[in-house]
Task: structure prediction
Amino acid sequence: MDPVGLQLGNKNLWSCLVRLLTKDPEWLNAKMKFFLPNTDLDSRNETLDPEQRVILQLNKLHVQGSDAWQSFIHCVCMQLEVPLDLEVLLLSTFGCDDGFTSQLGAEGKSQPESQLHHGLKRPHQSCGSSPRRKQCKKQQLELAKKYLQLLRTSAQQRYRSQIPGSGQPHAFHQVYVPPILRRATASLDTPEGAIMGDLKVEDGADVSISDLFNTRVNKGPRVTVLLGKAGMGKTTLAHRLCQKWAEGHLNCFQALFLFEFRQLNLITRFLTPSELLFDLYPSPESDHDTVFQYLEKNADQVLLIFDGLDEALQPMGPDGPGPVLTLFSHLCNGTLLPGCRVMATSRPGKLPACLPAEAAMVHMLGFDGPRVEEYVNHFFSAQPLREGALVELQTNGRLRSLCAVPALCQVACLCLHHLLPDHAPGQSVALLPTMTQLYMQMVLALSPPGHLPTSSLLDLGEVALRGLETGKVIFYAKDIAPPLIAFGATHSLLTSFCVRTGPEHQQTGYSFTHLSLQEFLAALHLMASPKVNKDTLTQYVTLHSRWVQRTKARLGLSDHLPTFLAGLASCTCRPFLSHLAQGNEDCVGAKQAAVVQVLKKLATRKLTGPKVVELCHCVDETQEPELASLTAQSLPYQLPFHNFPLTCTDLATLTNILEHREAPIHLDFDGCPLEPHCPEALVGCGQIENLSFKSRKCGDAFAEALSRSLPTMGRLQMLGLAGSKITARGISHLVKALPLCPQLKEVSFRDNQLSDQVVLNIVEVLPHLPRLRKLDLSSNSICVSTLLCLARVAVTCPTVRMLQAREADLIFLLSPPTETTAELQRAPDLQESDGQRKGAQSRSLTLRLQKCQLQVHDAEALIALLQEGPHLEEVDLSGNQLEDEGCRLMAEAASQLHITRKLDLSDNGLSVAGVHCVLRAMSACWTLAELHISLQHKTVIFMFAQEPEEQKGPQERAAFLDSLMLQMPSELPLSSRRMRLTHCGLQAKHLEQLCKALGGSCHLGHLHLDFSGNALGDEGAARLAQLLPGLGALQSLNLSENGLSLDAVLGLVRCFSTLQWLFRLDISFESQHILLRGDKTGRDIWATGSSPDFPAAAEFLGFRQRCIPRSLCLSECPLEPPSLTRLCATLKDCPGPLELQLSCKFLSDQSLETLLDCLPQLPQLSLLQLSQTGLSPKSPFLLANTLSLCPRVKKVDLRSLNHATLHFRSNEEEEGVCCGFTGCSLSQEHVESFCWLLSKCKDLSQVDLSANLLGDSGLRCLLECLPQVPISGLLDLSHNSVSQESALYLVETLPSCPRVREASVNLGSEQSFRIHFSREDQAGKTLRLSECSFQPEHVSRLATGLSQSLQLTELTLTQCCLGQKQLAILLRLVGRPAGLFSLRDSTRHTEKLSFPRLEACALGFKKKRKKERKKVSEDTELRTKIN
Result:
């Protein structure tokens, strides 16, 4: 009898257990694998007797301890057909701690070492502590081979075919279908971009395992990161790689190690590479250093796989990253085990910064339709079940979209395996509508028929929730009660594995079969457990953003928990939850309502793209139409999704929500990794108006799926597919689908690397899209021949209004005709013919082919093409290679092409010789309005006007010309053209040819010529002056920036006498601005003078030439006496009237005197202006002297010694001279000489000496000289800094100035001092004194002056500070003869006056000087007459 059986003390019970397990050895092997994951079930045990093999397995299980043994006994009783009496004995004897410890003797506690499994090696010494011994190369190789064989054998035993549990299909543990893998050009979250150089796979195609690693090219990235959302199969693929290596399929690697971060996180000490390999994996039998040296030497053949990088703990303390992450960083950077290959799996999110920039990023995108079908075929071995499952998936779109996630696909197959035998076809639509109900059905499928273990489910859910809250995914026997472990093992809810944290630290760990299952069970506990109230429950209903914050070191474990809570809030789940809650339906209903209420609040908030997706998942899981409608209506009109991964399930959920929306919506997917079959989820979504995708991850499979969805979107108006890698195969599907979308208004295929033929195939659909307004094909690298084909399409397609091609840009703009619905439904050929007929009548095409490398032969082909087309509004061929010949051809064809606005030939290599050819070619073009050629700026632009109307008859034209006599010159119509030949390097030798070429253009209307920025020089200016009369009447001529000297500039003045059209010559010498302009009111009908056929025109022309002055403006020029003398001599022959405007920095007295001396020689001069010109203090005297030297001067105005103006009179004008010298710093010392000069002028009507420096003394001197100056008008002495003295002296001077009519002085802020004269002696005078602030001592002097001014009849004092007392004294002292004298005192302020304001006093005096006084009230006048 077995020793253990003797120790247990119950021979019969042990024998019964052995016999029971002998009947089902496969079940026992599966449980041994579950409870002892580190035990190798090798073939040596198969040679033993079945009972002996069972006893050996039970012994191994029994020595693991009470937790493992009790959990095993519970599994026996749950899963096997155990008689009731035996079940009671087993649970009472072996299923509790007391029974285990009381029967376990000392021998059972210390098993001999020989009974340990050979796969568990004795812990070795540290690799660094063993002395290194010299071995020959052959011995080292033998040790390495033994170790590598040990690794492979261990992996083979680990991945031996697993036995399914009770009631599960055989393929439940064996089905593997590779998901879609896609390489990424840049990492998602690392700071630097990463390039995947090794993965060579087309979009949507299967990727073999060997494709992930290309060891033939050592330059490829050594680190590969496999990114995928939860449930995509990252861990499965990692184990698949290990299994394939164990089977010998990955021969490029001698050694492969798989580590899980969820286990590595339990290691708190720092590890060396050898400890990582030999402590966590089987260690070499001997000489660890030698084996590790071999691995280092052959590191390029070593693959290290790290699963769950997103679970790596990253403490944010000052100590830096954890020990395992530090080791991982050194392995990635090559500082440890350099040359080895590293592969890590992770959920999308923030990745550690230790990943190198060149790391290859591979995305796992789940299953598409064919992969789901393949998985179902492998899962169901029986054909009826397989066919039924496929039918269910084809009819249930929601279930099919859920199966895009491999983990959900497995759950769905399990549920269908359970439902199909007992339910009618089509029941999956009702039983499996959401992910939550999918998991709910899975739990029911894994439970015994008719029995749902409610307490065990809730208890296991509590363990799951506690793990989510603490970030725990690995549990030990101490964390879970043995009955729960047995329950989880029985129902395939838990999985076990060996946790190794060191050579002497290894134990069995448990985890839920998938993280999403842990979240589902936690949600069950929250919804059904009486321990959780609804307030606590709502705290878990949150939206997790997929944009991981930079400060967040680790991704959360509860991504799907809110979704499961929302799914359990569905009314369909209430019976299931009520059963779990033991009938407490009211509590369950309250919790469900609380979850829905939280989702309603979230639906009305403004959310980011990731949170919108999470919200849609939650709302869709609830199956609440009202909530779905609220969410759909709250979504913004433009809904962007940027830079986060999206699955087909995400888009399917979004489509489900949008079905409850009435308004249209714009969806923009920019930079989002999308699965190739994602567009299939948008089928039938009629709310989408704009749909845009921009991602390099979209390929042919994506385009094919999109082509199937487009015709079902009835509102779609804008389609954008940019930055993808679609080829001709994908485009062909879209081209077939576009005609089925007649409502499209804009289509964009930017930056898709399309070939020439593909682009031509796309434009073929233009006639079939009647409402299309824009087609964008930019950034697709087409050739010139294809571009010309596109131009032909633009010419022939009646709806095209513009074709714009510039380097990478290629855009069609269309204007669809307004057609009725019936017309749109006609046959395409009829629509096309009608459109062409209408387009030929009214269409105007704009063609812009810029920087397209067009050459001369291309221009010829383009001209032939455009001559057959419609009117052209604009043709832009700038930036090409047409050169002289091509430009000439285009210029000659311009008049035939019916261009109505612009022809641009800039930057085409035009030379100076080509300029002549272009001018000759354009000479006969009647519609040319402007030509601008600048060789330096590479500009060649033709501007056109509308086609001219037919010429009117002679009688109508004569009537029109006669009507011009009644119009002002500024009202006359304008007709002119501009020829701008700027910065072309033109020299004097080119002028004759240019003028010949321009000769044909002059008769077409008034011509504006611009030769600025050339190199004509003095020779060219002289030559041009000779050629100008042959060009006819010009409107303007610009000769700026041609390097002319002063002599050449002054020589241009002669043009006034040789060119009748020249009316204004503007010259700025320093800036070389030279412009000759004609009369702005001149018209082409008088281009060559008066017409003998039209007397009215001739009469009007002569009148115009006599009345409109010619103007010469010369600025920034050194005006020395010789230059001025020459200038004036040249102007003698100039017809008048003439205006001369001069400007320089400073004009010397000699130059000014020379200029003034020449004035009598210029009888036609009407204006001389010196603006912005510095003059000396002597200039006022020179200008004043001119008044007597030149009788034609009628006005001299000098301001601030900087601006002087002289106006000249004609013989017909009346006499009278005005002069002003304001701000000229005139003082007392200048008064006498200045007055002497003024006295020489016989007819001086007005003198303005304001703003000078006369002061009281200067003004006194001026008043003394006044009788000598023949002023007949106004003398203005304002702002000369005078005081009361000047006012008093004015009163005293009045008797000596009989021609003074009125004088006014204001010494306040106004500072005015004006004296008005008359031509004859004035009998009555008026004096107004304001704000003079007279003091008491001034009263007597004022009275004396008033007494002497016998002609003074009115005196007004305003705010002169004279009170009642001073006025009384003034009146008493004034001695006047008989007559009337009016005194008015206007006081605005009466602050200190105790008497009423005195407005007016009138006193009459008699010889006896007898007077009466009478007190008058305010605002009255007192008159006293003395006989």
Q: What stands out?
A: The mean pLDDT is 79. The first helix runs from residue 3 to 8. The two ends are 174 Å apart (CA to CA).
